[in-house]
Amino acid sequence: MKLFVFCLIAFFMISMVSARDITTLDGTTYKNVTITDSSPVGITIVYGQSGGAIVIRWLDFKDLPETIRKEFGYTEARAREFEKHVAVYQDMLYKDALKKIIANAAVKKQNEEDFKQMDHIQAFLFSKRKHVRVTTIRQHEDGVIGDATSADRTLTSGNYGHIFVRGLEGSQGTFWSGYIYPTDQIITTTDGVYAVYDSSLERATAEVTQAIKE
Question: What is the pTM of this model?
Fold first, then answer.
């Protein structure tokens, strides 16, 4: 049995290495070709053209003479079974690809929903923005703790007290004027608890969105 297998392998190796002419059933002749690969449904040949070009071509056993079919053990039953397997694997690949497309679509849809949610949050924060003048009490991490008053403060309204504003910098006594946006967060320091605002609408929106997801 081992000798038979060895001889069979040797036969195929010789068949694939030896250069030869092959004529298909429609009369096309390929000169001095080398058979480099075979399957239950066909063979792959390599040959040279004038000018030095190398051509690789696949030939179906259905288009080849009976002698070549027998040489490579071709049978219609084996070919049909092989084609069934190929179809199954192609279908599996297609389904995998389809799953990825569906998954990507789902992610895209989720992203679209996230964007819609962010739009609503951003609109809400924008409606709650405050136009303030912040006088810095001290720098703290990525912002300042300061005394905030409304830009149009009156004697009876517009004093927001001490707050933390992310995104600002400044030493004690410096002031900043602009819009701030609530984040619904607080920070606790050694000297008190402060409501957190942000000087950036985009950053405040991202912070609130993230807090909602957690």
Answer: 0.46
